[in-house]
Design brief:
Order of helices and strands: EHEEEEEHHHHHHH
Shape: elongated
Strand order of the largest sheet: 2-3-4-6-5
Number of strands: 6
Strand content: 15-25%
CATH class of the largest domain: Mainly Beta
Distance between the termini: 25 Å
Number of domains: 2
Number of helices: 8
CATH topology of the largest domain: OB fold (Dihydrolipoamide Acetyltransferase, E2P)
Radius of gyration: 19 Å
Structural class: alpha+beta
Length: 245
């Protein structure tokens, strides 16, 4: 398990929170935690589209007392937060090292190192870090903005979304051609499927039924949707194993 691969005399203690899809709605905020796209988009200080410009490298303190693996990227688009377009270095403090290749275009969720005491010694060299880990890179093609659009939609709803707002974004993700977005949408739909609002929402159910009847969603998501429609939102969790197939 990687915690940004920083090696120092004292090290960093990290708390790993691994929960079920529904339990993620009830967890308290910690730095080192897997999140849904909704949570990434609403909790991160900075959201940006970047292009990776260098492979994973290692920085060493002049006196050799500290080492840190890091990535370099160029900020192409600022969705929200206190950052400007241009070149940045950042490190990952996450469950498993993210895998970026030079030229990858990615949606990046960043925070300021100086605001976390465990990174105080690194903040001068690396002002930015991400808690995105392996499998959470959110890379995409230059012509495909569905991931970016979903993040923008969730960010706009931060602190004010109700059932209608949330289900609208979830349905757009389910109807996208990106299997990662479909799987992520199920995280939220499992929760929404338990609400009285969903039980009375005939329009949303009709759109979900159309997806089930089509070949637009991956099989694991289709099974989950069938369970949600049948009123078995809890069982929908077991239809997904975290990988689109």
């Amino acid at each position: 398990m990687s915690r940004s691969k920083r090696v120092s005399h004292r090290g960093i203690a990290a708390l790993v929170v691994v929960g079920s899809l529904v339990a993620s709605y009830a967890t308290a905020h910690v730095v080192f935690q897997r999140r849904s796209l909704r949570q990434w988009s609403q909790q991160a200080r900075i959201l940006a589209v970047v292009e990776v410009t260098a492979p994973l490298r290692v920085w060493s303190a002049p006196d050799g007392s500290d080492h840190q693996e890091y990535f370099s990227a160029r900020v192409l688009e600022v969705i929200d937060g206190d950052i400007e377009p241009g070149d940045i270095d950042f490190f990952a403090h996450a469950e498993g090292e993210p895998r970026y290749r030079v030229g990858d275009r990615a949606l990046l969720f960043l925070d300021r190192s100086a605001e976390h005491s465990e990174f105080a010694k690194l903040s001068a060299r690396f002002p930015l870090f991400t808690t995105q880990g392996a499998g959470q890179e959110w890379t995409f093609g230059s012509a495909d903005r569905s991931i970016v659009d979903a993040a923008i939609a969730w960010r706009a709803l931060r602190g004010k979304e109700g059932y209608r707002d949330r289900v609208a974004v979830v349905l757009r993700q389910l109807e996208s051609s990106d299997s990662r977005l479909q799987v992520e949408a199920m995280t939220d739909l499992v929760f929404l499927g338990r609400l009285p609002d969903f039980r009375a929402d005939l329009q949303s159910k009709a759109r979900i039924k159309a997806l089930v009847a089509s070949d637009r969603v991956v099989p694991s998501v289709r099974r989950g949707l069938e369970y949600v429609l049948s009123g078995r939102a809890s069982t929908a969790e077991s239809a997904l194993d975290g990988s689109p197939k």
